Known about the structure:
Strand order of the largest sheet: 3-2-4-1-5-6-7-8
Strand content: 5-15%
Number of helices: 12
Radius of gyration: 21 Å
Oligomer: single chain
Amino acid sequence: MGFFNLFSKKEKKQTLDEGLQKTKTSVFEKLTRAVAGKSKVDDEVLDNLEEALVTSDVGVETTVEIIRRIEERVARDKYVGTAELNRILREEVGAMLSESGNTGAGYELPEGVKPYVIMVVGVNGVGKTTTIGKLAWQFKQAGLKVYLGAADTFRAAAVEQLCIWGERADVPVVKQQMGSDPASVAYDTLQSAVAAGADVVLIDTAGRLHNKVGLMNELAKIKKVMKKVVPDAPHEVLLVLDGSTGQNAFEQAKQFAETTDINALAITKLDGTAKGGVVLGISHQLGVPVKYIGLGEKMTDLQPFDKEAFVESLFDQQ
């Protein structure tokens, strides 16, 4: 199912460039120091590059893999000048993102799947409910019928916030009393959505990690109950992470990956932070594609993740 473009490529690029400015500046300062006084990519340059990437929140495992690939290129090509390093970095980072399934599909929905059910997970405070609201708004702007399910029944603020976003996006929100069974809310949401002929359903879930067993059981129950209404639901389990927290986002991602089958990522709050390198590391280490990135407060600042545009913006020397 096609999704019409809510903003032009020029507008998207400008938002991306502005949102990644601090990360880009930080990365380039470190890369410049890594090659200072050198004309050739040698062991010292690679050591400096490794340090630059690790301290840019790319993550140790991903950095080691990037360095390994560059070493292979240097060995194969015999001589690689430091002027070529930026191009090689772009190519290898782009290749790694492709290997993790980053297709840039974003708001594109598969044909013949109705309703398309997205279960949204993530700890409190990462922008999970805000992300759901922005997704709902953009789907609605595309002419799709959207339903929201307030299955985070342990926090009154979460239900209230989702209802506010429902009003902004002009989409219905299915909710129950505080403390209700989250799976029951999900079940009611899907029943209502199917009866109304909805195209997309977004289910908000509780964001507690202090009790992983309880969280795992709860998410498993929600999935099981949803299948009674839509047999292949959820079609997408979207993990929302706060990019500005850097390595903390890595840890959250790993813990959620242990508790549920995540198949998509949304990384928020990348504007105003120098930790945008976390996008590369998390997608690579989990082997899960980044579907959306948050670059500001506006509805349209939640962009579909375009790996080519991201790499170009991050490593553009202009």
